[in-house]
Amino acid sequence: MQVLIVDDDFVTRRLLQARLVQMGLHVIEAVNGKEAWELLQANPIPLVITDWLMPLMDGLNLIQQIRAANFPRYIYVILLTNLDSKTDVVKGLEAGADDYLTKPFNLPELTARVKIGQRIVALEQRLLAMSDQLYIQATYDQLTGLLQRSAALEQLNLLVQRAQGQQQPLSLLLLDLDHFKQINDQHGHTVGDQALRLIAEQIQQTVRTSDPTARWGGEEMLVLLPGANSSAAIATAQRIRRAIGGQQLDHALPSSELSASIGIAVLEPGSSTDEPVHSIINRLLSQADQALYAAKNAGRNCCALYAEPQPLIIDKSA
């Protein structure tokens, strides 16, 4: 763990450095609060030991700057001071110090208080890691690595609003793995999981990094194409279908070639200007689902674009 010593007194810095290095800490030094603040802005060091009285910027102002900043991680601050009255101690703590030591400090007491700071910083890091892990679990499908349905709906809500505000098209692709139940029944769910992962990989390799992709449910995948009109959406859907087509699940299963059916729905720029966002989302999803159903009825392994009075089937050779 890194620790920042802030003190204008050379002897104090050497004493602190010697003990902190013995404790296995990586020591960085600053001679005043201004220099320390510049260091922290570039590298938010998690543990700071600062003197109170210093030129340019004193320890109290440094602490106040730290607490006012929006650092991604908490910075634990120990205040060193010659001012040992209760009023001064309270003033330092109210400014945002987590702990304090009076000069001349006792080395065993310094060690104990630094260890408290280490434990608190380490605990916060573990809690943040757990929070990040929970976020990933709540956002991404564990099998395919694609967005989960709820996260995809959030993305779709934002993209519909953006498409309306910028008068840009937005397209949806709803993809279904053909004969997935047959794959599970004949080869087992392990092979079925392999099929889903392989399809997810092919989709992600084909679309842009800015195109959110989700596991919509079971063997269905949803691809959002911001800025894509019907022609661009058809071209992307066909590329995905060709990338999936003929993929082999396993060398031991030569009959298990994959194919997919894809339904396409498009939100044209300037349309539905007065329609609520949730209504547009429901309509687009329904249209994509109807187009997907048409693609399946047309023999599968093809794409269909939602159109009135009936979806348009895209020729497999197109």
Distance between the termini: 59 Å
How many strands? 11
Supply the number of structural domains: 2
Oligomeric state of the chains present here: single chain
Low-confidence stretches: none
Here the CATH topology of the largest domain equals: Alpha-Beta Plaits
Biggest sheet, in brief? 6 strands, mixed
Spatial order of the strands in the main sheet? Answer: 7-8-6-9-10-11
CATH class division of the largest domain: Alpha Beta
Task: Chart the SSEs and their pairings.
Layout: E1 2-6, H1 10-22, E2 26-30, H2 33-42, E3 47-51, H3 59-68, E4 76-81, H4 86-95, E5 99-102, H5 107-139, H6 149-166, E6 170-177, H7 180-187, H8 189-206, E7 213-217, E8 220-226, H9 230-244, E9 260-267, H10 277-297, E10 303-305, E11 312-314
Parallel strand pairs: 1-2, 1-3, 3-4, 4-5, 9-10
Antiparallel strand pairs: 6-8, 6-9, 7-8, 10-11
Walk me through what this model shows.
With 318 residues, the chain is α/β, with parallel strands linked by helices. It folds into 2 domains: 2-138, Response regulator (Rossmann fold, 3-Layer(aba) Sandwich); 149-314, Alpha-Beta Plaits (2-Layer Sandwich), CATH 3.30.70.270. Helices cover 49% and strands 19% of the residues. The chain has 10 helices and 11 strands. The protein has a 6-stranded mixed beta sheet with strand order 7-8-6-9-10-11, sandwiched between helices. Strands 2-1-3-4-5 form a 5-stranded parallel beta sheet, sandwiched between helices. The mean pLDDT is 88.
